[in-house]
Amino acid sequence: MNTERDYLQIKLDKTVKDKIVEYCEKQYISINSLFSYYILNKEITVKSFHIKEPELLYLTLGKNVKDMIRKKAIEMNVSYRFFLNLVAAQICQDLSL
User: Fold this and answer.
1) pLDDT in tens, 32-41
2) Which of 3, 10, 4 is CA-nearest to residue 31?
3) CB 90 within 8 A of CB 35
4) d(C-alpha 96, C-alpha 38), whole Å
5) Could you please report the per-residue DSSP string of 17-85?
6) Strand, helix or coil at 15?
7) CA–CA gap between residue 65 and residue 35 (Å, rounded)
8) How far apart are CA 14 and CA 52, in angstroms?
9) Which domains does the chain have, with CATH numbers?
10) What phi and psi, each to the nearest 5 degrees, are found at residue 13?
């Protein structure tokens, strides 16, 4: 079992980040776990997002999750940062945030 961790930094819309952080705090789950779950288990159907006020989000993910991010980003022909913004938008849509 590979337990290597990797760190990612992405720019998200401040409102999106705040909604995800608030949801995770209320549900007692980590942001890293929520993103990992979506990356590994959910189909990303959201195709766009917007950033009015950029804010940084730092993620610590397993190497296998980071590899999956790169794979899915290549399949969608987008950068991994763009893909992670789509994941954030999908989380907000699915959880009605």
Assistant:
1) 999 999 999 9
2) 10
3) no
4) 15
5) HHHHHHHHHHHT--HHHHHHHHHHH----------SSEEEEEEEEEHHHHHHHHHHHHHHTS-HHHHHH
6) helix
7) 9
8) 8
9) 5-94 (1.10.1220)
10) -65, 135
pLDDT tens column, 67-84: 999 999 999 999 999 999
Instruction: Classify 1 as helix, strand or coil.
Output: coil
pTM exceeds 0.85: yes
39-73, pLDDT tens digit by residue? 999 999 988 888 999 999 999 999 999 999 999 99
Separation between Cα atoms, residue 78 and residue 52, nearest integer Å: 20
Identify the H or E element spanning 93: helix 80-94
Give the C-alpha separation, 50 to 13, whole Å.
7
Amino acid at 92: C
Residues 75 and 92: their CA atoms lie apart, in Å, by 22
